[in-house]
Specification:
Layout lengths: L2 H11 L40 H7 L10 E4 L11 E3 L5 H8 L8 E8 L12 H7 L3 E9 L4 H15 L4 E5 L2 E10 L8 E10 L5 E11 L2 E9 H6 L7 H10 L2
Length: 258
């Protein structure tokens, strides 16, 4: 496995939010058919819903008991970055930058972050072929960001993400933690079910050496709370092959939001 290349490439994908995701072999902080073409599904409710408090978000956040495999932890401190720490080259693409880096957009009343690392997979027997090793590293890392909003702020986040998907489908670039990230293109993907609104996408990232690989992002709304999911797969970061969004993680998180 080209561990050095994987580390370098994954870092280039997002030095901010994916700093957690590229350490799958290390530690992290312990401190339905409704899905459509990726565009936000507007089964939207217009009545005002009170924003969840920080304590309520903590209770509703993904926990170890909610998943069948892998490990849930609090997100690393390096993933708790501010909006002004990332600089998109095109302002209209800022909602996508925030979604991919796990930054809560707008002016949230409260935020909570969790990470999930898929359980390790061992090669069958003594197989040490490149294919077997790629399979062993076929592990997803997910950064989950929950944010609650007052006065229609959650609906505005989904509206802005949809607009950015249209405006930035041909790609965009941004700088975070001193590292420039280039997104080659943005394509709509299958969105999670169980939300009032949901939008999902595959971003194709161009690494330092011109290699390309996919990153999955979904942004959902349940009442006045936005749950976003930024996903990287270690094998995909090395090979450039596509991978499936881990719907079971989104399903588990959305179920806890009521």
């Amino acid at each position: 496995m080209r561990s050095t290349a994987v580390r370098r490439t994954a870092l280039a994908a997002s030095a901010a939010a994916l700093a957690l995701l590229v350490t799958a072999c290390g530690g992290s902080s312990d401190d339905g058919d409704k899905a459509g073409d990726g565009k936000a599904e507007a089964g939207s409710t217009t009545q005002a819903v009170e924003a969840l408090t920080a304590a309520e978000l903590e209770k509703a956040a993904l926990a170890q008991s909610d998943v069948k495999n892998g490990k849930v932890t609090e997100a690393a401190k390096t993933d708790d970055i501010a909006q002004d720490q990332v600089k998109p080259e095109k302002a209209e693409c800022r909602p996508l930058v925030f979604a991919q880096t796990g930054i809560a957009a707008g002016d949230p009343a409260a935020t909570v972050k969790r990470s999930w690392t898929e359980g390790p997979k061992k090669p069958a027997g003594a197989d040490v072929s490149e294919e077997a090793l790629d399979s062993a590293f076929d592990l997803d890392k997910v950064l989950v960001t929950l944010a609650s909003y007052e006065d229609g702020g959650a609906e505005a986040v989904l509206k802005d993400v949809n607009a950015a998907m249209s405006a930035c489908a041909g790609g965009f670039a941004y700088t975070g933690a001193g590292v420039k990230t280039q997104i080659d293109k943005v394509a709509a993907d299958k969105a999670p079910a169980g939300a009032d609104e949901a939008v999902a996408m595959t971003m194709t990232v161009t690494g330092e050496e011109g290699d390309k690989f996919p990153v999955k992002v979904a942004v959902t709304r349940k009442g006045s709370t936005v749950a976003s999911f930024a996903v990287i797969n270690l094998s995909a970061a090395a090979t450039g092959k596509d991978f499936a969004f881990p719907m079971e993680i989104a399903d588990a998180q959305l179920a806890k939001l009521g």
